Amino acid sequence: MAARAKNTNIADIPESERTPTVIALLEICTQQQEQLVKQQEQLVRQQEQIHLLKEQVQGLKDEVARLKRHKAKPKIKPSNLEKGGGKKGGGEKRPGSAKRRKKKKLEIHETVKVPPENVPEGSRFKGYEDFTVQDIVLKPHNTVYRLEYWVTPDGQRFVGKLPEEAGDGHFGTTLVSFILYQYYHGQVTQPLIWEQLVDLGVDISTGQVNRIITEGKEVFHKEKADILRVGLEVSLYVHVDDTGARHQGKNGYATHVGNELFAFFESTGSKSRINFLEILRGGHEDYVVSDVALDFMRARKLPMEHLENLCVHRGRRYDGKGVWKTLLWFLGITDERHVRIATEGALLGSVLDHGVNPELVIVSDDAGQFNLVLLMHALCWIHAERLLAKLVGFNEGQREDLERVRGQVWDLYQVLKLYKDAPSEKLKAEVSERFYAIFTQQTRFETLNQALKRLHRNKSELLLVLEHPEIPLQNNLSERDVREYVKKRKISGSTRSELGRRCRDSFASVKKTCRKLGVSFWYFLKDRVSGSNTIAPLSEMIRQRAQEVYG
Q1: How far is the C-alpha of 472 from the C-alpha of 417, rounded, in Å?
Q2: Cα–Cα distance between 384 and 147 in angstroms, integer?
Q3: What residue ranges do the domains of the chain occupy?
Q4: Hey, is 201 helix, strand or coil?
Q5: Distance CA 460, CA 203 (A)
Q6: Residue 180 and residue 521: Cα distance in Å, rounded?
Q7: At what angle are helices 336-353 and 273-280 packed, to 10 degrees?
Q8: Given its phi and psi angles, is residue 243 left (phi above 0), alpha (psi -120 to 50 degrees) or beta?
Q9: Pairing of the two strands 253-258 and 263-268
Q10: d(CA 541, CA 536)
């Protein structure tokens, strides 16, 4: 019955037969089918947990063997999928390892002529041999600005104005930029920054260091918001991932959205699909009942009665969470699952209504909150292959089958890379055939068979590159971007104030975006802190770079 309900649609039933009983039965069948899929996924997760427990037991055995001075089980190497499955010649040269002229663009601040000692008489001068020495100057530079003030005959008072380099308080723009750079880029904690400044001769308190780090940073918050808005407008695809981000002693999550053009971080207390859509909404507070929103609700199996009620409100916009919840209550949508589906659809309508590219491809590690159904979703092949890499065969036959299948996946990945470089219908057909052959085969390892079935269900996401060769095959970029955020979390711990959390996200976003755009983060900080704004907004650079890359 569940299989029949999966292929039955209310539109296929004649109007005369659409009785309440028939509609109710269809909904029951649909719910049973969803429960069956969830049970299958739960079975796979339980099998994964069993393997994890077996690995932990093996680890304990290894520890016992070490204490007894016996040989432990050898460690399994990480996946070499991106390097060609461990085959020689599969890897590429490390970025940045090419030879370059290190001093070609170096700015010279001072030139000193150094004559040799005891030059013999009769020698001839033949020119100079240049020897460049790089250095920095770290010392206090205190300035007293004597502001003239004048009083007119009628009592009006005129006072001289501080120059921009003086900053807003008693600490200059270079000092403020140095503190921000050390904390957000150098990964230095506040106490160590204070000790460093005191050692250099700066008279500053720990409270003032904290205020400089967190207060009055609206210009950076706005820059971060514009990064996401423009990035989602001009990008063909984005990488997404999340990581832990504690706040006020509680566990939270930081979501990353980005690609080669930009990076954006937002930390919240949840990592649901609603939370992800609220992040993509870019600070807007509205809910839009558009055609896209209704299509999403229909695809997520919202009951027909609720869907018809919402269709009456097609094209309307509702500002604020309270107004939206009131509408759902008024329409009789009170079930938790139905409220969630309707809210997700209205949020997706808002996201697309605010300029996000409707053809945007989301590349993820198969986390459920990133699958937005109507936006194209591509899965990371590295994460997919890890599902096989963590399996451990318990006899020779299972180990042979596992190694053979992993080799087939490695070979298919290399073919996909060739297809990205030179797409063709012949290669496209070959990839589809090989994918089917690999992920529908039966082996002597039942857990491996279940993993292959799970990956086969994700065929459309794993092979989306056949329709869009421009998208990447893996989500490594997002993991690299998140790695620096994790390092900061390990050094500084959790944030305590809302200002601290906002600043952590904003500076992580602008710092990483500066690096992607080739902008010096140090000079960017000095430019924004001083208010000179000679460096163009990062959002404008993203738009310009997108035109260069995408055409």
Answers
A1: 9
A2: 66
A3: 2-56, 381-466
A4: coil
A5: 61
A6: 10
A7: 20
A8: beta
A9: antiparallel
A10: 7
Six-digit token string for 8: 């039955």
Mean pLDDT lowest among 18-27, 83-92, 423-432, 542-551: 83-92
Distance separating alpha carbons of residues 202 and 178, to the nearest angstrom: 12
Q: Which residues contact 95 (CB under 8 A, 6 or more apart)?
A: none
- Model pLDDT for residues 66-121, shown as the tens digit of each residue: 776 665 555 555 566 666 555 544 455 555 556 666 666 788 889 999 999 998 98
User: Rounded to whole angstroms, how far apart are CA atoms 264 and 258?
Assistant: 6
Q: Which residue has the tokens 């990062």?
A: 538
- Global pTM reads 0.78
Task: Render pLDDT for 486-529 as a digit per residue (tens, 0 to 9).
Answer: 888 888 878 889 999 999 999 999 999 999 999 999 999 999 99
Q: Residue 387: phi, psi to the nearest 5?
A: -60, -30
Q: How far apart are CA 151 and CA 158, in angstroms?
A: 6
250 strand-pairing partners: 247
495: helix, strand or coil: strand
> 3-state class of 238 per DSSP?
strand
Closest CA to 403 of 94, 47, 86: 86
Residue type, 113: K
How wide is the angle at C-alpha 182 spanned by C-alphas 478 and 240, nearest 5°? 10
